[in-house]
Specification:
Four copies of one chain form a homotetramer. By secondary structure, the first copy, chain A, is α/β, with parallel strands linked by helices. The first copy, chain A, has a domain of 65 residues. In chain A, strands 7, 8, 9, 10, 11, 12 and 13 form a seven-stranded antiparallel β-sheet that branches. In chain A, helix 1 packs parallel to helix 13, helix 5 packs across helix 14 and helix 6 packs across helix 14. The longest helix of chain A has 25 residues. Chain A is globular and about 55 Å long. The N and C termini of chain A lie far apart (50 Å). In chain A, 59% of the residues are buried. The model of chain A has no long low-confidence stretch (mean pLDDT 95). Chains C and D meet through helix 9, helix 11, helix 14, helix 15 and helix 16 of C and helix 9, helix 11, helix 14, helix 15 and helix 16 of D.
């Protein structure tokens, strides 16, 4: 059969139109056969809105591709070539609960890290593994492009516990690449090579090669003195501590403010929670508005408003990755993939987020020079947190859960941690069956 | 010349009588020639009180050993066989300042760790290195027994930056050994082998061998269910989190409550600071009372009251170590020494606190089985903190100081850290010359 | 029951009288209950001779201990406290065959290394594992003292594939310790601490501590200039290459002549094979003479002639180890035990030969400082050879066997290796069932 | 100035016409300004012949580029953009001497490995470092493309002891890539990704990716059963031992026959030395014929006869690398570059031969999955040999030289090694000044 079958899991997401736009833009390099939208019962209505918008967008672009909606994941997966995973276990309500539990205990409430990231991973990983098991059966040659959060842990869980060809994606390095291009005054992003390395939401720019020179010191000087275009909209653009960039000689991704500026972030979050609402609450309101817009039968393009959503370029990265694989483009992209020695000091079989050459056979990571010891120690600590979290997500073992969380620098230890963990497990009663099986 | 020359640096310490008692008890195995007491001008009066008490104690024991007081360290070091280092740079006032700065910024204030440990190390290490340089010249064969805090970092600094034969000591493993003996109902501590490993104030009991069995699980069960005699008096005896001992299968030393129960410790410290005073303030009052007692011309033994001081057994360990070296005893003691692969995953040339066979040629560490990954990560992180701290102490470089502190789990990051570091440097103006040279 | 039950596997060995002598010498520290001699049908006659001599020796010493001979290993193992393993799979005939095959292909023929060591391991390991399985059932608390060759590989196989408490022994470090004592002019071996590390028959003296000094440079100078008393009688006492000791700053054990002087050893062996016979052939003749002597009903002590046998002190080490364990002696002995990080760069769960403190709970290895890189590489290569050999011994897989041998520096590669391996498998038809099961 | 200045060191080599042909073929992508030929007095005549041929070849191609001959290396290096290093220290005579010394002692005589590789490295590295020092001064931004043998060690020496941007090249992976293309039936080599890793002349094919599949097992099956087109002409095309390819699941480069089939190679070399001559002698005769041909004033293209020379594709690789750097081609090539963690288990700052993305800023190595332990051990051993050799080449220290050689599996140890080393030093009196300075 000619043309690709693409399945989108969690298709009711407000991000889907960006994905559709990306596919339309690449119509000449990515021949499509069928587009399958999958969601669960709770997302049926949103998916319907998205499906209609998708059909209008395709029609406007002159594409006559079948768009199929289903609650039956298996029929969507059967024979698929690419599977995009972008679901949110427990919906935004669960994310908001995580944030509120965290802040109640004086902890940062964040979707991919700390207590919130832990809870999210525990809800999500069992579902991701179920999808992977179905893919092994129904589309063993398909690529899984995962942008379901926490993307690093979910990708690692799938890579370790299945034979599925999975790649994790994130918009953070995409935004950094665009920001660096702007600072260097480059028209094309391929005019330089930016190499990143680390874990998802925990990466560092290691070098920016242009014309035989490493421009990293220059870029560090620029963002130290002027505006910093490397920060996504959903992260407070606090200036980095004066000692950080100079001391490290590397640029941390914006999410590293959660570590290097944890107290400021916590104050900011506490203020927001008492004001306009937590990030989850703000996003929920924004999403409602977006779906209002999506419903408009005259809308046949991705609306401008989506760009305020925070996850910008996620879907563009996904489409570019599909094309790079399909067309053996051999371009450099930044992806979550198996470490296999790429970052020395992290386990071989863990997932890392690194710059890789994308070939028809998937990503071939570029080697990464050894990290300075202090940064390596943080990466190792975080990876241990991630691996214990994955283990707890699967087993539902509370000892393991506690050992994971007590390692995490965003979490405070002692009685507060024991209570916070109890609250997470209690308030996710239906969403964490493994933890409740034990009792 | 027959008999040993012993020099005590910081002899005006209230602990000195315990050291004297230990020497008296070992009079038949440790022949002494001269006892030199050294202090600085600010400690002259305390040293005089100690010297008089020492002479009375020796007389009472029937020993006719010369006891010499001096402010001239070089004459005390010349030809010494053992040098006991137990000074406190900046006296208790500096410790109290560290505590108050820390608590003001919402941080744990502790003498050997976190912000306070950092400040203490920065004050102390340059002095320790000056002593080591003098020892290289004046008594190159002498053993330096260091119990100056932070003992681990001070010992490492001396081991890395001099050729002095240095061993660091701590009372924490001594108290643990006695506690375990009590739980096992052993008359003699040598009835079992307790092996510890880690960093100073950051050790874990790895095995408790008795009659071919590892009693560690039994001891864990005992301290989980009943009283915990492994805790020194100066650490709040909070019960360990339920997940910790079971999860790890190891017993952390009491100081690890600063990590695994950081929030409870912080609350406790904040309460104390607003009540009876910080630990430093309490100790200061206690010391004044001790020196009142020491002044009593009728006192000729170590007074009972010293046992409330917290540093119990420090000096006993020092005397036992001297005797074990001098007599080639080949007993197992717990000391700070060069790692050289003892703990896998830590640098070869760093200092670790481990169980070692004590010979005439010094400590030969027993090998340590690999740590579980989550504990290893903490040890590695702490060692990176320690090494950056040592580097900052010597160079006075603020970037390095910040990089050290931002790694430490007891320290919060962001603006709060930048301000706290500024305060430490500002309020130690005369005590941190390296940091002020820079400006 | 009071007193120890000791089982000797391979009791028909000509070494047994030394073991009996050692037990008699330690009669006051090692209370015995029963002594069981075990052998197979082929060794029945030799065992009978040994048993009679043993009874005469015990009687002469005034000991009334039951000495039981059996071909039924299980009854000997039942409830044993110590099991001494000293059997030779395939008897001396197999060893001689190995030597002849090796020399025929231009290879060194040696019992514990190279092609011969490989063949010996493949014959022996399955039997050792069968014994270990029986011990798990019949005497789970017993200690297995293994001096069956190749001792390092056999010990590792048992440690990895059973729960038996096994310690491997060798006379090489014992002879080195005695030689060093002689060079230092020490009356007692405990006057100094000699630390060795490496693999069985592949160890290096790392330090010789006496009075706070490392005497290693002095001892190196002595054996460079004068006679070398560290060499067992069965190794050609070639002088070390001039560059070796000076370059390394360590003393290799005598067996390392097989590596560092492989060509001279090969020439020597070829000469012997064409003259008085291979080592195995010489030993066979010697054994026959020994058994003649053993038969003498008037003989009631270990005969002088045994000392020419090469394995001197093996049994003394075994008796000393039994006593050190039984009496919690906490002396330093040199044993084969689990690495667990003792030698950095070798796998945690492999067997290494190192200096260890012997306690009632077994050996606690002293930590070993990192090896210089060139020696570490040899150790790693040899360990890979050993591990592949163990794997081949169990599986009978020829690919694995080839991969083991092609790594070994004593073996030449190419067609010669393929033929030599074929010959080993063919000429051990009945002794290597795993390899023949495959066909 | 527009256009590139290229300097060729050792321009009197018979390979130079291939280099010229490569430059002519790339005339549209590599704009040239000046071509400088450099050699020493002994090579003056050959260089003159090459220079004339070069001018004829350029003229025939319609290129009007200045071709300058010089014995003054500095004027050639001044302002150069690319420096091609292809000299042979001591000329073919030295190579032949190495071969004859080796064979006389029963050792393999080979130009890049074993005793011959050692001798060659010791002659060459001091000169390579002198060139690098001049480049730092005269053309600090130039790229050094090294194909002077032993290419791996020479490249490492330059990378470690200078700041020159050096890349080492070899024709072995080029030939393997072409062989694989032939076996896969691919028109274009870019239709698949072949990844190699190891050390120079010691590499393994790790994967052959095509259409999302790893074709390595298929290619292994092909060369096991049929002809093996991956072997250069100068290596005996012995079939691999049956256990090797199946056991490893990787394809060793042809030079690994020197290890895995050392005995067959040695027999072959001994036969050749007694027959048509050693490889060096054969090459010498071939070179004389080639220079006869080069002299022909009618010759204006690279002659067919050069293809029999063994070093085929060396120069093509060099030209392609120049173009890939100059044009930021981002193609994958196989080069010697700094390890920096690319191959786990080898030092960070050593040179490795790996597949890399070639950018304007030089090679970015692709990450390499961990090697199986047995192969890693060989790589580590060889790297230790290389590093000790480099150290000996610089210091002239005989202890170090011996320690290097005794590690090498191609060298036999004992008296034979001591004599062979003496002979190498003695017979290279003028070519190894560092070794003779010592005496």
């Amino acid at each position: 059969m000619t043309g690709l079958k693409i399945a989108i899991i969690g298709a009711g997401s407000s991000y889907t139109p960006e994905l559709i736009e990306g596919l339309i833009q690449r119509r000449h390099e990515l021949p499509l056969r069928e587009l399958w939208l999958v969601d669960i019962e709770d997302g049926r209505e949103k998916m319907a809105i998205i499906a209609d918008l998708t059909r209008r967008m395709l029609a406007r672009a002159g594409l006559t591709l079948p768009v199929l909606e289903t609650l039956n994941r298996r029929e969507a997966l059967l024979g698929a070539d690419f599977v995009c995973s972008q679901f949110r276990a427990g919906c935004l309500e669960a994310r908001i609960r995580d944030e509120r539990i965290s802040l109640r205990h004086g902890l940062i409430g964040q979707e991919t890290n700390g207590l919130g990231g832990f809870a999210n991973a525990c809800r999500t990983i069992p579902i991701a593994l179920a999808i992977a098991a179905e893919m092994e059966e129904l589309c063993p040659d398909a690529w899984l492009l995962n942008f379901t959060n926490p993307s690093g842990m979910v990708t690692e869980a799938v890579l370790r516990h299945s034979r599925v060809k999975a790649v994790g994606l994130c918009n953070v390095p995409v935004i950094m690449q665009k920001g660096v291009a702007q600072l260097l005054g480059c028209q094309r992003e391929s005019d330089f090579v930016m190499q990143v390395a680390g874990l998802n939401h925990f990466i560092f720019v290691r070098q920016i090669l242009q014309q035989g020179e490493d421009r990293l010191p220059q870029v560090i000087a620029q963002i130290t003195q002027g505006p910093d275009p490397l920060v996504p909209r959903n992260i407070p653009p606090f200036r980095w501590p004066q000692h950080l960039l100079t001391g490290l000689g590397m640029i941390p991704c914006a999410y590293l403010r959660y570590y290097y500026m944890s107290d400021d972030i916590l104050q900011q979050e506490l203020g927001e929670a008492n004001g306009e609402g937590t990030r989850g609450e703000v996003v929920k309101a924004l999403e409602q508005k977006l779906f209002e817009i999506y419903r408009d039968p005259d809308l046949a393009v991705k609306p401008k408003a989506l760009e305020g959503r925070g996850g910008q370029y996620y879907s563009e990265a996904a489409c570019e990755l599909m094309s790079a694989i399909y067309n053996d483009k051999r371009i450099i992209m930044h992806v979550n993939t198996r470490n296999q020695g790429t970052i020395a000091g992290l386990p071989d079989d863990c997932a890392v987020e690194v710059s890789a050459l994308i070939t028809r056979s998937g990503p071939l990571p570029l080697n990464v020079a050894p990290f300075p010891e202090d940064v390596l120690r943080l990466l190792q600590l975080m990876k241990s947190f991630e691996q214990l979290t994955i283990s707890a997500a699967i087993s539902g073992d509370r000892h393991t859960a506690w050992r994971a969380l007590v390692l995490n620098p965003l979490v405070r230890s002692g009685t507060v941690l024991e209570r916070a963990l109890d609250d997470v497990i209690e308030e996710n009663r239906d969403l964490l069956p493994a933890f409740h099986r034990q009792h």
